[in-house]
């Protein structure tokens, strides 16, 4: 192979090289609540049928900019699974704060999300979760979590199109 072809190949390989990072998995308790009783700390109201969650207050407070509606964690999607049955997984969006959650990585799930992981009569399960998208935060407990990209929560987690349409009108 001519020398200039080798240099070109080496240059292209250098440009196209990728760095991968291992995902961070968080473990905590999974419970459920009704997001339909009022506005969540992220400033929106959701239905029990939406795939949403409230993150432990200690984690949400680590990023509180003063107005919880502007918390940068709002809208991030996470993949959650039941540790007793890891094949049961659900993807939810963080839309609220869980003041009753004791562990830093506990999630309070909507009934629709919890039902995909366990029977509601159980009430509390051991869960693990990871971000379903890259976290663009540079400080705090979730700095640099990978992979994916941020999405608009109104377009991705609302199961009722009429609810989504009414939110778009606000």
From TrEMBL:
Keywords: Signal. Residues 1-22 form the signal peptide. Residues 31-128 form the RlpA-like protein double-psi beta-barrel domain. It comes from the Eukaryota. InterPro entries: Expansin_CellWall, RlpA-like_DPBB, RlpA-like_sf. PANTHER family: PTHR31836, SRCR DOMAIN-CONTAINING PROTEIN-RELATED. This is RlpA-like protein double-psi beta-barrel domain-containing protein. It comes from Letharia lupina. The lineage of its organism: Eukaryota, Fungi, Dikarya, Ascomycota, Pezizomycotina.
